Protein backbone atom coordinates (compact mmCIF):
# COMPACT_ATOMS: atom_id res chain seq x y z
CA UNK A 1 0.00 0.00 0.00
CA UNK A 2 3.04 2.23 -0.41
CA UNK A 3 1.64 3.59 -3.70
CA UNK A 4 -1.57 4.62 -2.02
CA UNK A 5 0.19 6.50 0.74
CA UNK A 6 2.57 8.12 -1.72
CA UNK A 7 -0.39 9.21 -3.83
CA UNK A 8 -2.01 10.80 -0.79
CA UNK A 9 1.14 12.69 0.16
CA UNK A 10 1.64 13.88 -3.41
CA UNK A 11 -1.97 15.04 -3.55
CA UNK A 12 -1.62 17.04 -0.34
CA UNK A 13 1.52 18.74 -1.65
CA UNK A 14 -0.18 19.60 -4.93
CA UNK A 15 -3.17 20.91 -3.04
CA UNK A 16 -0.98 23.37 -1.16
CA UNK A 17 0.98 24.35 -4.27
CA UNK A 18 -2.24 24.95 -6.20
CA UNK A 19 -3.74 27.15 -3.49
CA UNK A 20 -2.07 30.52 -4.08
CA UNK A 21 -3.25 32.11 -0.87
CA UNK A 22 -2.04 29.24 1.27
CA UNK A 23 1.17 28.88 -0.67
CA UNK A 24 2.15 32.53 -0.28
CA UNK A 25 1.32 32.56 3.45
CA UNK A 26 3.42 29.46 3.82
CA UNK A 27 6.48 31.16 2.38
CA UNK A 28 6.08 34.88 3.07
CA UNK A 29 6.27 34.68 6.87
CA UNK A 30 9.37 32.44 6.97
CA UNK A 31 11.13 34.55 4.35
CA UNK A 32 10.39 37.78 6.19
CA UNK A 33 11.87 36.22 9.32
CA UNK A 34 14.93 34.78 7.65
CA UNK A 35 15.76 37.29 4.91
CA UNK A 36 14.31 40.66 5.83
CA UNK A 37 14.95 40.64 9.59
CA UNK A 38 18.66 39.64 9.44
CA UNK A 39 19.25 42.16 6.64
CA UNK A 40 17.80 44.98 8.71
CA UNK A 41 19.93 43.89 11.68
CA UNK A 42 23.11 43.83 9.63
CA UNK A 43 22.50 47.22 8.06
CA UNK A 44 21.74 48.77 11.43
CA UNK A 45 24.87 47.24 12.96
CA UNK A 46 27.02 48.39 10.07
CA UNK A 47 25.86 51.98 9.89
CA UNK A 48 25.40 52.46 13.61
CA UNK A 49 27.77 55.02 15.19
CA UNK A 50 30.03 53.50 17.81
CA UNK A 51 28.49 54.20 21.14
CA UNK A 52 29.82 53.90 24.60
CA UNK A 53 26.81 52.02 25.88
CA UNK A 54 27.12 49.39 23.24
CA UNK A 55 30.74 48.71 24.02
CA UNK A 56 29.83 48.49 27.70
CA UNK A 57 27.28 45.80 26.81
CA UNK A 58 29.84 43.97 24.72
CA UNK A 59 32.34 44.11 27.57
CA UNK A 60 29.89 42.16 29.68
CA UNK A 61 29.99 39.24 27.30
CA UNK A 62 32.20 36.29 28.10
CA UNK A 63 35.56 36.41 26.34
CA UNK A 64 34.69 33.43 24.20
CA UNK A 65 31.78 35.32 22.62
CA UNK A 66 33.91 38.32 21.61
CA UNK A 67 35.39 38.78 18.17
CA UNK A 68 37.90 41.33 16.82
CA UNK A 69 35.44 44.12 16.10
CA UNK A 70 32.19 45.01 17.88
CA UNK A 71 30.43 44.77 14.56
CA UNK A 72 31.58 41.20 14.01
CA UNK A 73 30.60 40.28 17.58
CA UNK A 74 27.13 41.69 17.15
CA UNK A 75 26.51 40.08 13.77
CA UNK A 76 27.71 36.82 15.16
CA UNK A 77 25.33 37.08 18.10
CA UNK A 78 22.39 37.84 15.86
CA UNK A 79 23.17 34.86 13.66
CA UNK A 80 23.74 32.38 16.43
CA UNK A 81 21.40 33.50 19.20
CA UNK A 82 18.50 35.35 17.63
CA UNK A 83 17.95 33.68 14.28
CA UNK A 84 17.81 30.07 15.60
CA UNK A 85 14.69 30.97 17.52
CA UNK A 86 12.96 31.71 14.22
CA UNK A 87 13.63 28.11 13.27
CA UNK A 88 11.51 27.01 16.15
CA UNK A 89 8.65 29.17 14.94
CA UNK A 90 8.84 28.29 11.25
CA UNK A 91 8.30 24.50 11.64
CA UNK A 92 5.36 25.09 13.98
CA UNK A 93 3.88 27.63 11.63
CA UNK A 94 4.22 25.63 8.44
CA UNK A 95 3.26 22.30 10.02
CA UNK A 96 0.10 23.87 11.45
CA UNK A 97 -0.98 25.28 8.12
CA UNK A 98 -0.38 22.02 6.29
CA UNK A 99 -1.89 19.77 8.96
CA UNK A 100 -5.00 21.91 9.23
CA UNK A 101 -5.51 21.80 5.50
CA UNK A 102 -4.76 18.07 5.34
CA UNK A 103 -7.11 16.99 8.14
CA UNK A 104 -9.74 19.60 8.87
CA UNK A 105 -9.74 20.89 5.29
CA UNK A 106 -10.71 17.43 4.04
CA UNK A 107 -13.49 17.26 6.57
CA UNK A 108 -14.73 20.72 5.70
CA UNK A 109 -14.91 19.88 2.00
CA UNK A 110 -16.55 16.48 2.65
CA UNK A 111 -13.65 14.63 1.05
CA UNK A 112 -12.54 12.91 4.23
CA UNK A 113 -15.27 10.29 4.01
CA UNK A 114 -14.17 9.38 0.48
CA UNK A 115 -10.65 8.98 1.74
CA UNK A 116 -11.83 6.70 4.53
CA UNK A 117 -13.43 4.42 1.92
CA UNK A 118 -10.01 3.71 0.40
CA UNK A 119 -8.50 0.32 1.21
CA UNK A 120 -6.13 1.73 3.82
CA UNK A 121 -6.25 1.26 7.56
CA UNK A 122 -6.99 4.34 9.58
CA UNK A 123 -3.42 4.18 10.82
CA UNK A 124 -2.04 4.31 7.29
CA UNK A 125 -4.22 7.27 6.38
CA UNK A 126 -3.08 8.98 9.55
CA UNK A 127 0.56 8.23 8.80
CA UNK A 128 0.34 9.54 5.25
CA UNK A 129 -1.28 12.76 6.46
CA UNK A 130 1.22 13.33 9.26
CA UNK A 131 4.11 12.54 6.96
CA UNK A 132 2.90 15.01 4.34
CA UNK A 133 2.63 17.81 6.92
CA UNK A 134 5.98 16.90 8.43
CA UNK A 135 7.82 16.76 5.13
CA UNK A 136 6.37 20.06 4.01
CA UNK A 137 7.29 21.84 7.22
CA UNK A 138 10.83 20.47 7.01
CA UNK A 139 11.04 21.58 3.40
CA UNK A 140 9.94 25.10 4.28
CA UNK A 141 12.44 25.17 7.16
CA UNK A 142 15.24 23.99 4.94
CA UNK A 143 14.48 26.53 2.23
CA UNK A 144 14.29 29.27 4.86
CA UNK A 145 17.59 28.14 6.33
CA UNK A 146 19.34 28.22 2.97
CA UNK A 147 17.83 31.61 2.16
CA UNK A 148 18.99 32.95 5.51
CA UNK A 149 22.55 31.67 5.19
CA UNK A 150 22.78 33.01 1.68
CA UNK A 151 21.51 36.47 2.70
CA UNK A 152 23.54 36.76 5.86
CA UNK A 153 26.81 35.63 4.31
CA UNK A 154 26.40 37.73 1.17
CA UNK A 155 25.66 40.84 3.19
CA UNK A 156 28.49 40.16 5.56
CA UNK A 157 30.88 39.67 2.69
CA UNK A 158 29.76 42.89 1.03
CA UNK A 159 29.77 44.99 4.18
CA UNK A 160 32.75 43.67 6.10
CA UNK A 161 34.57 41.44 3.61
CA UNK A 162 34.41 38.44 5.87
CA UNK A 163 32.14 35.43 6.41
CA UNK A 164 30.20 34.71 9.59
CA UNK A 165 30.63 31.34 11.20
CA UNK A 166 27.39 29.59 12.25
CA UNK A 167 27.81 28.02 15.68
CA UNK A 168 27.24 24.37 16.55
CA UNK A 169 23.94 25.21 18.25
CA UNK A 170 22.43 25.26 14.78
CA UNK A 171 22.77 21.48 14.67
CA UNK A 172 20.48 20.62 17.59
CA UNK A 173 18.09 23.38 16.50
CA UNK A 174 17.71 22.16 12.92
CA UNK A 175 18.04 18.42 13.48
CA UNK A 176 16.21 17.93 16.76
CA UNK A 177 14.15 20.91 17.88
CA UNK A 178 12.66 21.92 14.53
CA UNK A 179 11.46 18.40 13.62
CA UNK A 180 10.10 17.64 17.07
CA UNK A 181 8.24 20.94 17.35
CA UNK A 182 6.81 20.32 13.90
CA UNK A 183 5.56 16.89 15.02
CA UNK A 184 4.06 18.33 18.18
CA UNK A 185 2.24 21.03 16.24
CA UNK A 186 0.84 18.43 13.82
CA UNK A 187 -0.33 16.30 16.73
CA UNK A 188 -2.11 19.22 18.35
CA UNK A 189 -3.88 20.10 15.11
CA UNK A 190 -4.86 16.50 14.46
CA UNK A 191 -6.22 16.03 17.96
CA UNK A 192 -8.25 19.16 17.54
CA UNK A 193 -9.41 18.10 14.09
CA UNK A 194 -11.85 15.51 15.43
CA UNK A 195 -13.71 18.35 17.10
CA UNK A 196 -12.89 21.37 14.95
CA UNK A 197 -15.34 22.28 12.24
CA UNK A 198 -13.17 24.71 10.33
CA UNK A 199 -9.53 25.11 9.44
CA UNK A 200 -9.22 28.35 11.43
CA UNK A 201 -10.63 26.76 14.55
CA UNK A 202 -8.07 23.99 14.51
CA UNK A 203 -5.15 26.33 13.90
CA UNK A 204 -5.90 28.13 17.12
CA UNK A 205 -4.63 25.10 19.01
CA UNK A 206 -1.12 25.67 17.70
CA UNK A 207 -1.09 29.16 19.16
CA UNK A 208 -0.53 27.62 22.58
CA UNK A 209 2.67 26.13 21.28
CA UNK A 210 3.89 29.48 20.06
CA UNK A 211 3.42 31.29 23.38
CA UNK A 212 6.33 29.68 25.27
CA UNK A 213 8.47 30.28 22.22
CA UNK A 214 7.66 33.96 22.21
CA UNK A 215 8.86 34.05 25.80
CA UNK A 216 12.05 32.35 24.66
CA UNK A 217 12.58 34.99 21.98
CA UNK A 218 12.14 37.79 24.46
CA UNK A 219 14.57 35.98 26.72
CA UNK A 220 17.10 35.61 23.96
CA UNK A 221 16.83 39.22 22.89
CA UNK A 222 17.40 40.57 26.36
CA UNK A 223 20.37 38.35 26.81
CA UNK A 224 19.00 36.41 29.78
CA UNK A 225 19.25 33.09 28.07
CA UNK A 226 22.42 32.49 26.18
CA UNK A 227 21.56 28.88 25.71
CA UNK A 228 24.52 26.66 25.27
CA UNK A 229 24.71 23.68 23.00
CA UNK A 230 24.25 21.08 25.71
CA UNK A 231 21.15 22.68 27.12
CA UNK A 232 19.75 22.95 23.60
CA UNK A 233 20.57 19.33 22.94
CA UNK A 234 18.81 18.31 26.14
CA UNK A 235 15.71 20.34 25.32
CA UNK A 236 15.78 18.90 21.81
CA UNK A 237 15.81 15.29 23.03
CA UNK A 238 12.97 15.97 25.48
CA UNK A 239 10.89 17.69 22.79
CA UNK A 240 11.47 14.87 20.32
CA UNK A 241 10.45 12.23 22.86
CA UNK A 242 7.38 14.24 23.81
CA UNK A 243 6.41 14.80 20.17
CA UNK A 244 6.69 11.11 19.31
CA UNK A 245 4.81 10.06 22.44
CA UNK A 246 1.93 12.47 21.77
CA UNK A 247 1.79 11.37 18.14
CA UNK A 248 1.60 7.70 19.08
CA UNK A 249 -1.20 8.30 21.55
CA UNK A 250 -3.09 10.45 19.10
CA UNK A 251 -2.91 7.77 16.38
CA UNK A 252 -4.27 5.16 18.78
CA UNK A 253 -7.34 7.20 19.63
CA UNK A 254 -8.46 7.73 16.06
CA UNK A 255 -11.65 5.99 14.97
CA UNK A 256 -13.74 6.36 11.85
CA UNK A 257 -16.75 7.29 13.91
CA UNK A 258 -15.03 10.13 15.72
CA UNK A 259 -13.62 11.49 12.49
CA UNK A 260 -17.00 11.65 10.81
CA UNK A 261 -18.79 13.51 13.57
CA UNK A 262 -19.73 16.90 12.29
CA UNK B 1 -23.32 -17.14 -2.75
CA UNK B 2 -24.33 -14.68 -0.05
CA UNK B 3 -22.38 -11.47 -0.28
CA UNK B 4 -23.94 -9.12 2.25
CA UNK B 5 -25.37 -10.43 5.50
CA UNK B 6 -26.70 -8.57 8.54
CA UNK B 7 -27.94 -10.21 11.71
CA UNK B 8 -30.00 -8.17 14.18
CA UNK B 9 -27.89 -5.19 13.21
CA UNK B 10 -28.68 -2.18 15.41
CA UNK B 11 -27.25 1.28 15.81
CA UNK B 12 -27.94 3.85 18.47
CA UNK B 13 -26.01 7.10 17.99
CA UNK B 14 -24.21 8.69 20.90
CA UNK B 15 -27.00 11.29 21.08
CA UNK B 16 -29.52 8.50 21.79
CA UNK B 17 -31.14 8.28 18.33
CA UNK B 18 -32.07 4.69 17.58
CA UNK B 19 -31.31 4.83 13.87
CA UNK B 20 -31.48 1.08 13.20
CA UNK B 21 -33.22 -1.71 15.06
CA UNK B 22 -32.56 -5.43 14.55
CA UNK B 23 -32.01 -5.41 10.82
CA UNK B 24 -31.58 -8.91 9.38
CA UNK B 25 -30.91 -9.20 5.67
CA UNK B 26 -29.05 -11.42 3.30
CA UNK B 27 -28.10 -10.52 -0.26
CA UNK B 28 -27.02 -12.90 -2.99
CA UNK B 29 -24.43 -12.39 -5.68
CA UNK B 30 -25.75 -10.46 -8.67
CA UNK B 31 -28.73 -9.13 -6.80
CA UNK B 32 -29.80 -5.47 -7.02
CA UNK B 33 -31.29 -4.82 -3.62
CA UNK B 34 -33.40 -1.67 -3.28
CA UNK B 35 -33.30 -0.31 0.25
CA UNK B 36 -36.24 2.06 0.48
CA UNK B 37 -37.51 4.37 3.14
CA UNK B 38 -38.38 7.97 3.94
CA UNK B 39 -35.90 10.60 5.21
CA UNK B 40 -34.23 9.55 8.43
CA UNK B 41 -35.28 5.92 8.02
CA UNK B 42 -31.75 4.65 8.62
CA UNK B 43 -30.55 3.87 5.09
CA UNK B 44 -27.30 5.83 5.21
CA UNK B 45 -26.65 4.47 8.69
CA UNK B 46 -26.94 0.93 7.33
CA UNK B 47 -24.47 1.68 4.53
CA UNK B 48 -22.03 3.18 7.02
CA UNK B 49 -22.30 0.12 9.24
CA UNK B 50 -21.75 -2.20 6.28
CA UNK B 51 -18.68 -0.24 5.18
CA UNK B 52 -17.16 -0.20 8.63
CA UNK B 53 -17.11 3.52 9.27
CA UNK B 54 -19.69 3.10 12.02
CA UNK B 55 -19.54 0.47 14.76
CA UNK B 56 -22.81 -1.38 15.41
CA UNK B 57 -24.28 -1.08 18.88
CA UNK B 58 -25.83 -4.53 18.47
CA UNK B 59 -25.83 -7.49 16.07
CA UNK B 60 -23.31 -8.09 13.33
CA UNK B 61 -22.75 -7.81 9.59
CA UNK B 62 -20.56 -9.30 6.90
CA UNK B 63 -19.52 -8.26 3.41
CA UNK B 64 -18.00 -11.01 1.26
CA UNK B 65 -17.31 -12.97 4.44
CA UNK B 66 -15.43 -10.11 6.12
CA UNK B 67 -16.58 -8.22 9.20
CA UNK B 68 -16.41 -4.54 8.26
CA UNK B 69 -15.82 -3.48 11.85
CA UNK B 70 -12.67 -5.61 12.11
CA UNK B 71 -11.10 -5.19 8.68
CA UNK B 72 -12.68 -2.13 7.04
CA UNK B 73 -9.78 -1.80 4.59
CA UNK B 74 -10.48 -5.30 3.22
CA UNK B 75 -14.16 -4.49 2.78
CA UNK B 76 -13.24 -1.23 1.00
CA UNK B 77 -11.03 -3.13 -1.41
CA UNK B 78 -13.98 -5.33 -2.41
CA UNK B 79 -16.69 -2.70 -2.46
CA UNK B 80 -17.47 0.48 -4.32
CA UNK B 81 -19.08 3.07 -2.09
CA UNK B 82 -20.97 6.14 -3.18
CA UNK B 83 -22.70 8.35 -0.62
CA UNK B 84 -23.79 11.95 -0.71
CA UNK B 85 -21.16 12.93 1.88
CA UNK B 86 -18.28 11.28 0.05
CA UNK B 87 -17.18 14.02 -2.33
CA UNK B 88 -14.07 14.66 -4.37
CA UNK B 89 -11.56 17.49 -4.73
CA UNK B 90 -12.88 20.71 -6.25
CA UNK B 91 -9.46 22.04 -7.18
CA UNK B 92 -8.64 19.00 -9.31
CA UNK B 93 -10.05 18.00 -12.69
CA UNK B 94 -12.31 14.99 -13.13
CA UNK B 95 -9.46 12.95 -14.58
CA UNK B 96 -7.00 14.00 -11.86
CA UNK B 97 -9.51 13.00 -9.22
CA UNK B 98 -10.04 9.57 -10.75
CA UNK B 99 -6.29 9.05 -11.15
CA UNK B 100 -5.76 9.93 -7.49
CA UNK B 101 -8.38 7.48 -6.26
CA UNK B 102 -7.07 4.83 -8.64
CA UNK B 103 -3.66 5.17 -7.02
CA UNK B 104 -5.24 5.16 -3.57
CA UNK B 105 -6.88 1.85 -4.48
CA UNK B 106 -3.53 0.46 -5.51
CA UNK B 107 -4.13 0.46 -9.26
CA UNK B 108 -0.96 1.02 -11.25
CA UNK B 109 -0.79 4.11 -13.40
CA UNK B 110 -1.55 2.64 -16.83
CA UNK B 111 -4.41 0.56 -15.52
CA UNK B 112 -5.78 3.55 -13.62
CA UNK B 113 -5.70 5.64 -16.78
CA UNK B 114 -7.47 2.99 -18.87
CA UNK B 115 -10.11 2.39 -16.21
CA UNK B 116 -10.76 6.11 -15.70
CA UNK B 117 -11.08 6.79 -19.41
CA UNK B 118 -13.46 3.93 -20.03
CA UNK B 119 -15.65 4.87 -17.06
CA UNK B 120 -15.72 8.52 -18.10
CA UNK B 121 -16.84 7.40 -21.55
CA UNK B 122 -19.53 5.11 -20.17
CA UNK B 123 -20.89 7.85 -17.93
CA UNK B 124 -20.71 10.46 -20.72
CA UNK B 125 -18.19 12.64 -18.95
CA UNK B 126 -15.39 12.51 -21.52
CA UNK B 127 -15.90 16.16 -22.47
CA UNK B 128 -15.66 17.19 -18.84
CA UNK B 129 -12.56 15.19 -18.02
CA UNK B 130 -10.17 18.16 -17.95
CA UNK B 131 -12.46 20.60 -16.20
CA UNK B 132 -12.04 21.38 -12.54
CA UNK B 133 -14.67 19.77 -10.34
CA UNK B 134 -15.63 23.21 -9.04
CA UNK B 135 -17.22 23.79 -12.47
CA UNK B 136 -19.21 20.53 -12.46
CA UNK B 137 -22.96 20.43 -12.08
CA UNK B 138 -24.59 18.28 -9.41
CA UNK B 139 -25.37 15.54 -11.90
CA UNK B 140 -21.83 15.50 -13.27
CA UNK B 141 -20.40 15.19 -9.76
CA UNK B 142 -22.78 12.38 -9.06
CA UNK B 143 -21.73 10.48 -12.16
CA UNK B 144 -18.06 11.07 -11.41
CA UNK B 145 -18.65 9.62 -7.94
CA UNK B 146 -20.12 6.53 -9.53
CA UNK B 147 -17.05 6.26 -11.77
CA UNK B 148 -14.86 6.58 -8.68
CA UNK B 149 -16.77 3.82 -6.92
CA UNK B 150 -16.29 1.50 -9.90
CA UNK B 151 -12.57 2.15 -10.54
CA UNK B 152 -11.23 -0.90 -8.75
CA UNK B 153 -13.85 -3.35 -10.10
CA UNK B 154 -15.64 -3.92 -6.80
CA UNK B 155 -17.68 -7.07 -6.09
CA UNK B 156 -20.28 -5.18 -4.05
CA UNK B 157 -21.63 -1.73 -4.76
CA UNK B 158 -23.13 0.47 -2.04
CA UNK B 159 -25.05 3.28 -3.66
CA UNK B 160 -26.72 5.89 -1.50
CA UNK B 161 -29.08 7.95 -3.67
CA UNK B 162 -27.10 7.43 -6.88
CA UNK B 163 -29.59 9.18 -9.13
CA UNK B 164 -31.05 11.93 -6.96
CA UNK B 165 -29.51 14.77 -9.01
CA UNK B 166 -29.64 13.23 -12.47
CA UNK B 167 -31.78 14.15 -15.47
CA UNK B 168 -34.03 11.40 -16.96
CA UNK B 169 -31.56 10.41 -19.70
CA UNK B 170 -28.73 10.00 -17.25
CA UNK B 171 -30.97 8.10 -14.86
CA UNK B 172 -31.66 5.62 -17.66
CA UNK B 173 -28.00 5.38 -18.52
CA UNK B 174 -26.96 4.78 -14.91
CA UNK B 175 -29.80 2.30 -14.55
CA UNK B 176 -28.57 0.33 -17.51
CA UNK B 177 -25.04 0.34 -16.13
CA UNK B 178 -26.13 -0.94 -12.74
CA UNK B 179 -28.24 -3.68 -14.27
CA UNK B 180 -25.42 -4.75 -16.58
CA UNK B 181 -22.93 -4.86 -13.74
CA UNK B 182 -25.22 -7.09 -11.73
CA UNK B 183 -26.23 -9.30 -14.64
CA UNK B 184 -22.96 -9.71 -16.51
CA UNK B 185 -20.38 -9.39 -13.78
CA UNK B 186 -22.37 -10.72 -10.85
CA UNK B 187 -21.85 -7.61 -8.77
CA UNK B 188 -24.14 -7.26 -5.76
CA UNK B 189 -25.75 -3.84 -5.55
CA UNK B 190 -27.10 -2.35 -2.35
CA UNK B 191 -29.07 0.66 -3.50
CA UNK B 192 -30.66 3.19 -1.15
CA UNK B 193 -33.24 5.52 -2.57
CA UNK B 194 -36.62 7.09 -2.12
CA UNK B 195 -37.25 7.35 -5.85
CA UNK B 196 -39.66 4.43 -5.95
CA UNK B 197 -40.39 4.33 -9.65
CA UNK B 198 -36.72 4.27 -10.38
CA UNK B 199 -36.17 1.51 -7.84
CA UNK B 200 -38.95 -0.58 -9.33
CA UNK B 201 -37.19 -0.43 -12.70
CA UNK B 202 -33.73 -1.44 -11.62
CA UNK B 203 -33.99 -3.56 -8.46
CA UNK B 204 -34.57 -7.29 -8.28
CA UNK B 205 -35.48 -7.30 -4.61
CA UNK B 206 -36.54 -4.70 -2.08
CA UNK B 207 -36.41 -3.91 1.59
CA UNK B 208 -38.67 -1.25 3.05
CA UNK B 209 -37.47 0.48 6.16
CA UNK B 210 -38.98 3.18 8.33
CA UNK B 211 -37.63 4.59 11.59
CA UNK B 212 -34.95 1.95 11.72
CA UNK B 213 -37.34 -0.99 11.39
CA UNK B 214 -37.49 -3.26 8.34
CA UNK B 215 -41.19 -3.34 7.41
CA UNK B 216 -41.05 -5.88 4.59
CA UNK B 217 -38.64 -7.38 2.12
CA UNK B 218 -38.80 -9.53 -0.98
CA UNK B 219 -39.36 -9.35 -4.72
CA UNK B 220 -42.06 -7.07 -6.07
CA UNK B 221 -44.36 -10.09 -6.48
CA UNK B 222 -43.78 -11.23 -2.91
CA UNK B 223 -44.43 -7.74 -1.59
CA UNK B 224 -47.68 -7.53 -3.58
CA UNK B 225 -48.86 -10.84 -2.12
CA UNK B 226 -47.91 -9.75 1.35
CA UNK B 227 -49.33 -6.25 1.31
CA UNK B 228 -52.35 -6.71 -0.97
CA UNK B 229 -53.57 -10.29 -0.43
CA UNK B 230 -56.76 -9.55 -2.38
CA UNK B 231 -56.75 -8.14 -5.88
CA UNK B 232 -59.13 -5.83 -7.69
CA UNK B 233 -60.26 -6.73 -11.18
CA UNK B 234 -61.36 -3.79 -13.34
CA UNK B 235 -64.09 -4.60 -15.85
CA UNK B 236 -65.76 -2.49 -18.54
CA UNK B 237 -69.04 -4.12 -19.46
CA UNK B 238 -72.75 -3.61 -20.16
CA UNK B 239 -75.90 -5.48 -19.15
CA UNK B 240 -74.15 -6.94 -16.11
CA UNK B 241 -76.33 -9.24 -14.00
CA UNK B 242 -77.06 -8.06 -10.47
CA UNK B 243 -75.86 -11.22 -8.77
CA UNK B 244 -72.37 -11.35 -10.36
CA UNK B 245 -70.88 -9.60 -7.35
CA UNK B 246 -69.50 -6.57 -9.24
CA UNK B 247 -69.30 -3.17 -7.62
CA UNK B 248 -70.14 -0.28 -9.98
CA UNK B 249 -67.46 2.39 -10.21
CA UNK B 250 -68.80 4.58 -12.98
CA UNK B 251 -70.95 4.32 -16.11
CA UNK B 252 -70.13 0.90 -17.58
CA UNK B 253 -67.20 0.36 -15.19
CA UNK B 254 -67.03 -2.18 -12.41
CA UNK B 255 -64.55 -3.65 -9.95
CA UNK B 256 -64.54 -7.15 -8.55
CA UNK B 257 -62.51 -8.35 -5.62
CA UNK B 258 -60.79 -11.69 -6.21
CA UNK B 259 -58.29 -13.73 -4.21
CA UNK B 260 -56.61 -15.81 -6.89
CA UNK B 261 -56.14 -15.39 -10.61
CA UNK B 262 -57.97 -18.71 -11.11
CA UNK B 263 -61.14 -16.92 -10.04
CA UNK B 264 -61.11 -14.69 -13.13
CA UNK B 265 -62.37 -17.19 -15.82
CA UNK B 266 -65.21 -18.31 -13.53
CA UNK B 267 -66.33 -14.77 -12.95
CA UNK B 268 -66.16 -13.83 -16.65
CA UNK B 269 -68.06 -16.98 -17.71
CA UNK B 270 -70.73 -16.21 -15.16
CA UNK B 271 -71.22 -12.68 -16.51
CA UNK B 272 -71.27 -13.77 -20.15
CA UNK B 273 -73.66 -16.66 -19.53
CA UNK B 274 -76.05 -14.30 -17.78
CA UNK B 275 -76.11 -12.13 -20.92
CA UNK B 276 -73.53 -9.50 -19.98
CA UNK B 277 -71.33 -7.83 -22.63
CA UNK B 278 -67.68 -7.47 -21.69
CA UNK B 279 -65.47 -4.84 -23.38
CA UNK B 280 -62.31 -5.13 -21.30
CA UNK B 281 -60.94 -6.87 -18.24
CA UNK B 282 -57.77 -5.63 -16.52
CA UNK B 283 -55.99 -6.77 -13.42
CA UNK B 284 -54.01 -3.71 -12.29
CA UNK B 285 -50.98 -4.73 -10.30
CA UNK B 286 -50.02 -2.46 -7.40
CA UNK B 287 -46.82 -0.56 -8.04
CA UNK B 288 -43.96 -0.33 -5.59
CA UNK B 289 -45.19 3.15 -4.76
CA UNK B 290 -48.59 1.84 -3.70
CA UNK B 291 -47.00 -0.91 -1.66
CA UNK B 292 -44.70 1.60 0.00
CA UNK B 293 -47.52 3.95 0.94
CA UNK B 294 -49.69 1.11 2.17
CA UNK B 295 -46.86 -0.08 4.40
CA UNK B 296 -45.83 3.30 5.78
CA UNK B 297 -49.46 4.33 6.29
CA UNK B 298 -50.11 1.06 8.14
CA UNK B 299 -47.23 1.86 10.41
CA UNK B 300 -48.48 5.38 11.15
CA UNK B 301 -51.93 4.02 12.04
CA UNK B 302 -50.40 1.45 14.36
CA UNK B 303 -48.54 4.26 16.08
CA UNK B 304 -51.62 6.38 16.57
CA UNK B 305 -53.44 3.51 18.22
N1 LIG C 1 -23.97 11.24 13.01
C1 LIG C 1 -25.19 11.15 13.56
N2 LIG C 1 -25.36 11.41 14.86
C2 LIG C 1 -26.58 11.29 15.44
N3 LIG C 1 -27.69 10.94 14.79
C3 LIG C 1 -27.61 10.66 13.48
C4 LIG C 1 -26.34 10.75 12.79
N4 LIG C 1 -26.55 10.43 11.50
C5 LIG C 1 -27.86 10.15 11.38
N5 LIG C 1 -28.50 10.28 12.56
C6 LIG C 1 -29.93 10.01 12.81
O1 LIG C 1 -30.20 8.67 12.49
C7 LIG C 1 -31.45 8.54 11.83
C8 LIG C 1 -31.25 7.83 10.51
O2 LIG C 1 -30.48 8.65 9.65
P1 LIG C 1 -29.97 8.19 8.22
O3 LIG C 1 -29.01 9.21 7.74
O4 LIG C 1 -29.50 6.79 8.29
O5 LIG C 1 -31.32 8.27 7.38
P2 LIG C 1 -31.54 8.03 5.81
O6 LIG C 1 -32.48 6.89 5.69
O7 LIG C 1 -30.25 7.94 5.10
O8 LIG C 1 -32.31 9.37 5.42
P3 LIG C 1 -32.25 10.21 4.04
O9 LIG C 1 -33.22 9.60 3.13
O10 LIG C 1 -32.71 11.57 4.49
O11 LIG C 1 -30.85 10.20 3.56
C9 LIG C 1 -32.01 9.93 11.71
O12 LIG C 1 -32.96 10.11 12.73
C10 LIG C 1 -30.82 10.84 11.93
O13 LIG C 1 -31.23 12.01 12.58
MG1 LIG D 1 -29.28 9.11 3.60
Question: Could you provide a short overview of the structure?
Answer:
The complex is a heterodimer of chains A (262) and B (305). Chain A is an all-alpha fold.
Task: Describe the protein.
Chain A is mainly alpha-helical. Chain A has one domain. Helix content of chain A is 81%, strand content 0%. Chain B is α/β, with parallel strands linked by helices and 305 residues long. Chain B folds into 2 domains: 2-219, P-loop containing nucleotide triphosphate hydrolases (Rossmann fold, 3-Layer(aba) Sandwich), CATH 3.40.50; 229-282, Dna Ligase, domain 1. Chain B has 10 helices and 13 strands. In chain B, strand 1 (2-12) and strand 2 form a beta hairpin. The mean pLDDT of chain B is 90. Adenosine-5'-triphosphate binds at residues 13, 15, 17, 19, 37, 39-45, 194 of chain B.
List the helices and strands and how they pair.
The complex is a heterodimer of chains A (262) and B (305).
Chain A: H1 2-18, H2 20-47, H3 52-60, H4 70-108, H5 112-116, H6 122-160, H7 170-193, H8 199-221, H9 229-252, H10 256-259
Helix pairs in contact in A: 1-6, 2-4, 2-6, 4-6, 4-7, 4-8, 6-7, 7-8, 7-9
Chain B: E1 2-12, E2 18-28, E3 32-36, H1 43-50, E4 58-63, H2 72-78, E5 79-82, H3 94-104, H4 109-122, H5 138-150, E6 156-160, H6 168-185, E7 188-193, H7 196-202, E8 205-210, E9 213-218, H8 220-227, E10 231-238, E11 247-250, E12 253-258, H9 263-273, E13 277-282, H10 288-304
Parallel strand pairs in B: 3-7, 3-8, 5-6, 6-7
Antiparallel strand pairs in B: 1-2, 1-4, 8-9, 10-12, 10-13, 11-12
Helix pairs in contact in B: 3-4, 8-10
Bound molecules: adenosine-5'-triphosphate (ATP) and magnesium ion.
Adenosine-5'-triphosphate binds at residues 13, 15, 17, 19, 37, 39-45, 194 of chain B.
